[in-house]
Design a protein that fits this description.
The complex is a heterodimer. Chain A is an alpha+beta fold. Chain A has helices at about 15-30, 45-55, 65-75, 90-95, 105-110, and strands spanning about 1-5, 35, 60-65, 80-85, 115-120, 125, 130-135, 135-140, 145-150, 155-160, 180-190, 195-205, 205-210, 215, 220-225, 230-240. The radius of gyration of chain A is 19 Å and the shape is elongated. The two termini of chain A are about 30 Å apart. The chains are: A alpha+beta, B alpha/beta.
């Protein structure tokens, strides 16, 4: 059976129309299953654990990045695939997986399942990326390379990227199933009359954060203190769209 | 010639050290490395190494092919083709399969090129194969 978990903010009236359209499509395609609407007092952990015991066909998150991140963390090591139907704001993970709200049902139906690596920042899981924030950042990569940065434009640990034409990511090894993540560092280089962006990139398995102001996990959760970023290889089955770029 | 044989395959870039980034440590990897910044330690790759114009490497370097346009203080060991552009500055010994040095490049150290022996072997093998085909 398919289990649909609705994000708590979808209880707002403004999402009624979208949800009705989604449910109609789901029924038409024969994908229907149990719907769980999260409320302010619902425990996501208990809900997901209880449902996983019943061995569902798929767990489908209907909502945004925060819920996808939480459910992915709870499903680490499970055979049941995770699917996403993006709805509301902040759907970067779904975009990265090549899933739009319009095509989500078709993606669900096609069941293109990939075995993903799951990232960890200390004990906090991440699916897509972690941004390291700070004016002075000091990182130790794979216990052998020390990188000290001052005023970087961006320091981002990436499991998989958006399917965009971003020049900074062009030609880089970013595959969420290869047991490696990418560390992308962008710095602004100032010249006399102009400035340009310079990129650095490291494919690695482990990063120790020796100095930074904090990290932002999957674009929604800020952690003031983080010590280590590492990967759990092939921990999560995720249904992906064909418009992904990995 | 170089662009055809030793160009970086953009799908295999494993490491880029950008301008004004300083890295310390030992690099050992399988993919291509592009250095535009500063690197202290050692570098070893079984693929291509590109050292940019403004870069500085204080390390011994090993690669299968390399294009050097910056400064290296350390020994260089390249099993295939090594190209030094006019802006290259090398303080160390060089061992390469084959080499080209542009006018203006600065070198201080010994150079050992072992490519001729390999080339002779390839020519000899090709001749033998040709003879076999004629006999058949």
């Amino acid at each position: 059976m398919n289990i649909f978990i609705y994000d708590s903010y979808l209880n707002q009236k403004k999402y009624n129309k979208e949800l009705i359209a989604l449910e109609r499509k789901i029924t038409d395609l024969g994908l229907n299953g149990k719907i769980i609407r999260l409320g302010m007092l619902s425990s996501l952990e208990n809900t997901v654990e209880d449902e996983l015991k019943k061995r569902p066909k798929t767990i489908i998150v209907v909502g945004g990045d925060a819920l996808v991140n939480q459910v992915a963390g709870l499903m680490s090591g499970c055979e049941t695939p995770l699917a996403v139907v993006p709805m509301g704001e902040s759907n970067q993970i779904a975009n990265g997986l090549g899933i739009s709200t319009k095509e989500a049902c078709a993606v669900l139906l096609s069941r293109r399942i990939l075995n993903f690596d799951l990232g960890m920042v200390d004990d906090q899981p991440f699916v897509k990326n972690v941004v390291v924030v700070g004016k002075k950042i000091s990182l130790l990569i794979d216990d052998k390379l020390a990188v000290n940065l001052e005023n970087p434009q961006l320091a981002e640990v990436i499991n998989f990227s958006q399917p965009s034409s971003d020049e900074l990511l062009e030609g880089l090894l970013l595959n969420p199933a290869d047991g490696l993540f990418g560390l992308l560092i962008v710095k602004k280089i100032k010249h006399w009359f102009k400035s340009e962006l310079s990129r650095s990139f490291f494919a690695c398995k482990n990063i120790k954060i020796q100095a930074a102001d904090g990290v932002i996990v999957d674009g929604f959760k800020t952690m003031a203190k983080a010590h280590e970023i590492h990967l759990l290889k092939n921990r999560l089955n995720i249904i992906v769209g064909k418009n992904r770029n990995f | 010639m170089f662009s055809k044989t030793a160009q970086v395959n953009s799908k295999q870039i494993e490491t880029i050290i950008g301008q004004s980034v300083k890295v310390e440590g030992d690099f050992i990897c399988q993919g291509s490395i592009i250095v535009e910044g500063e690197l202290k330690g050692s570098v070893k790759t079984s693929d291509f190494l590109k050292v940019g114009v403004k870069s500085l490497i204080l390390a011994d370097v090993e690669a299968s092919e390399a294009l050097v346009a910056g400064e290296i203080k350390g020994d260089i060991k390249v099993s295939g083709y090594l190209e030094l552009t006019s802006t290259a500055k090398i303080l160390g010994n060089i061992q390469a399969g084959s080499i080209s040095v542009a006018k203006g490049a600065m070198l201080s150290g010994q150079i050992l090129v072992s490519g001729q022996e390999k080339a002779n072997k390839i020519i000899k093998k090709a001749k033998e194969e040709k003879e076999e085909i004629i006999v058949e």
